[in-house]
From TrEMBL, chain A:
Keywords: Membrane, Transmembrane, Transmembrane helix, Transport
Keyword Oxidoreductase set for record: no
InterPro entries in the record: MetI-like, MetI-like_sf, Sugar_ABC_transporter
GO biological process, one term: transmembrane transport
Membrane-spanning ranges: 7-25, 69-89, 96-122, 149-175, 207-225, 256-278
Membrane topology of this protein: Multi-pass membrane protein
Domain ABC transmembrane type-1: 65-277
Protein name: Trehalose transport system permease protein SugA
Family: Belongs to the binding-protein-dependent transport system permease family.
Gene Ontology CC: plasma membrane
Keyword Ubl conjugation found: no
Pfam families: BPD_transp_1
Protein localization: Cell membrane
TrEMBL record, chain B:
PROSITE patterns cross-referenced by the UniProt entry: ABC_TM1
Keyword terms, alphabetized: Cell membrane, Membrane, Transmembrane, Transmembrane helix, Transport
Organism superkingdom: Bacteria
Record-linked CDD domains: TM_PBP2
Family from the record: Belongs to the binding-protein-dependent transport system permease family.
Organism: Roseibium album
GO (cellular component) term, any one: plasma membrane
SUPFAM superfamilies in alphabetical order: MetI-like (SSF161098)
Location of the protein in the cell: Cell membrane
Protein name in UniProt: Trehalose transport system permease protein SugB
Membrane topology: Multi-pass membrane protein
Transmembrane segments annotated in the record for this chain: 6-24, 62-86, 98-118, 130-153, 174-200, 231-252
GO biological process: transmembrane transport
Main location: membrane
Amino acid sequence: MKTQNQRAWLFVTPVLLLVAFNALIPMMTVVNYSVQETFGDNLFFWQGLDWFEQVLRSERFHNALGRQFLFTFLILIIEVPLGIAIALSMPKQGPWVPFCLVTMALPMLIPWNVVGAMWNIFTLPDIGLLGYFMNHTLGISYDMTQNPLAAWVTIIVMDVWHWTSLVVLLAYAGLVSIPNAYYQAAEIDGASNWAVFRFIQLPKMKTVLTIAILLRFMDSFNIYTEPFVLTGGGPGNSTTLLSIDLVKIALGQFDLGPAAAMSLIYFAITLLASWLFYTLMTMNDNKS
Amino acid sequence: MRLKSLVPVIYILFLMLPIYWLVAMSFKTTNEILAGFSLFPQTWTLANYIEIFTDPTWYWGYINSIIYVTMNTVISVLVALPAAYAFSRYSFVGDKHLFFWLLTNRMAPAAVFALPFFQLYSAVGLFDTHLAVALAHCLFNIPLAVWILEGFMSGVPKELDETAYVDGYSFPRFFATIFLPAIKSGVGVAAFFCFMFSWVEMLLSKTLTAVEAKPIAAVMTRTASSAGYELGLLAAAGTLTIIPGAIVIYFVRNYIAKGFALGRV
């Protein structure tokens, strides 16, 4: 049981001030813009909820949101099963474990724009390793800058390359925490591999997998730099995800009102996801 | 059984391929790159690296990045320590809401903050300084550090605190000489994750800087767009950004999962 102590607020004050400075003031700016219209010169006019209506009705927003959900959905159904499969096939101990952990984590430590630039170089049709292999060895026409499907496949594969290790590491952490006695008992009962997975490994991985799925959901939902550097949102608008579209409107066209309204809608979606994350996580905390 | 042990090998090969290509590209001459495909560099050259280490715009990009990343890591861990202690040991009015609110900032899309951050930091006169980027990255790094440290602190039995008080330790002395050593791996992991997320982030660091504090990430995009086909140079710059992460990762290999899970594994 934790001690009741209101002076604990003193301990959290520095955090509160710093994060509030970064979160509340910008958020107020966004709210401010979202209900006003400006023609420059710091002249603002009350606009009410018109921007929200405009954004929510605009086809452009629907398309970006649709692409965003498609992207997040695709990377989740690829990365989660793949990550579990790789974690299951890793050795439980031995000299290879540190090597596996370090090399697998490496992609996650590369700056996001370098990830984009790296995949750009990797997939160039005539001089990239993958591009050359596809076009000249396999004879499949593959050019990300021309073909929307190729661009989509590339950003999905790039994200799988970048983040599957997150699922692997979390699932692996869950797996090694299972005592050997469980497996011995399963062996005595003559349990099949599937039964071991379904009734021992999967339940033990539940907590970490919840975290992995929610983290991947949210981080992929906020993704900006990697696809922006790789495709610039193109060809056309085919890979313009939500963040890319938002930055285009806010910093490219300087349409502050619609950008602010879109920001708040976007933020509301992530807030809902965060709440889900928190609830599931504290539920797990309370059980253990 | 043998098939099973091949899976991690294939996966690691897949992970290494684009990295290999980046490194290979960085040792090629521009002529060789433009001439066509070659699996290995035909004529090895260090010209790309030499250019980066002799051109101030390039190497200052690295120095700028390292400065604000270090500032951010120090600030985040220092203010997160007492807060994490409060969350792990005490219950107080609004603690759960506050903890949740911190998390929402870790999850917030950076794109939402790009423009208001630009205006905020211009208004307080910090635009284009290292401090601006360091403070801006606190938005997601402080919540991360608080969560990770809280996870580690909750693993330390409360009896440790009580025994120390009975023995007559004052709070600061207890915290510095007994509690901190007990959670030092947690501090290391929190610092590593702050370092990492500040190092890989680009949208905010690029928005908040122009010349003086320009991070390596922004220098790279400039090269990529304006100078056209300087791929070798771009590859060399990219290769150099991988090195800091590759060096520190060995030390935290057993805690990476815990860090990503915000201290909850």
